[in-house]
Amino acid sequence: MSSSRGLRRASRTLAVITAVGIAGLLSAPAAQAATPTDDSYVPPEPTIDLTVLAPVCDGDVPYLDYAVDVTGTENDTVTITWQNPSGDDVVESGLPLSGRVIWPGAVVGPDGRGADWPGWRLEDGEWVVGDEFDWVRPSVEVLFEVNPETVVTVDYPPSSPNCATNPPGEEDPPPPAQQVSNPVTSASSDAPGLADTGATVGLYAAIAGGLAVVGAAILLLTRRTRRS
Predict the structure, then answer these.
(1) Residues with Cβ < 8 Å from 200, sequence gap 6 or more?
(2) Which residues contact 201 (CB under 8 A, 6 or more apart)?
(3) How many other CB atoms sit within 10 Å of the CB of residue 48?
(4) Among residues 18, 28, 167, 213, which is most buried (max CB within 10 A)?
(5) How far is CA 123 from CA 90, 127, 130, in A?
(6) What string of DSSP letters covers 152-198?
(7) For residue 132, what is the DSSP state?
(8) Are 120 and 103 contacting, i.e. CB atoms less than 8 angstroms apart?
(9) How confident is the model over 134-170, as pLDDT tens digits?
(10) What is the pTM assigned to this prediction?
């Protein structure tokens, strides 16, 4: 009788412990959700996207139309850097996230039309190819910085019957000369490689032959042992 009562008490105790454990498990996620986890929150990385990037000619003046879309940053201005591969860059800072910038080296005259163009200079009343802005055509790398940043390559806008990006009556100047390196190839450089390859194949063949001999000897020894 006493053993039966003891079993009942033990069962009740076990049931209570189980119920308390289940309640604790059920309440844990709620408590965890209520606890702030700001320390573990990692904000997304800022992004930048150029939604508009268009070289245009307007009034015989070359321009670059642009529009920048950014996320994850409070910056509302962009810095545009025309990257010179062999000299000083042209930097324009504090610009709006969308707008139009004039091509470096271009000049607007008093009448609002083009008066000078990159890659050209006026000497004794005649237009001559070559000036300090040769590097912005036929293409140039442009850096857009908002934090984050991105670099793109843009082409100089071509002339059309209604808009000229060169002096009157002039064609596009030739691209600036670039230094080209000629790699030197050694005619004898391949010979050692072929010799090494032949030696390696011969070594592998010798190893394979040796393994075959060892395998045959082991097989023969096994057969003799079985017979004896």
Answers:
(1) none
(2) none
(3) 19
(4) 167
(5) 25, 6, 11
(6) EEEEPPPPBTTB-SSSTT-PPPPPPP---------GGGHHHHHHHHH
(7) T
(8) no
(9) 999 999 999 999 989 999 999 999 999 999 999 999 9
(10) 0.61
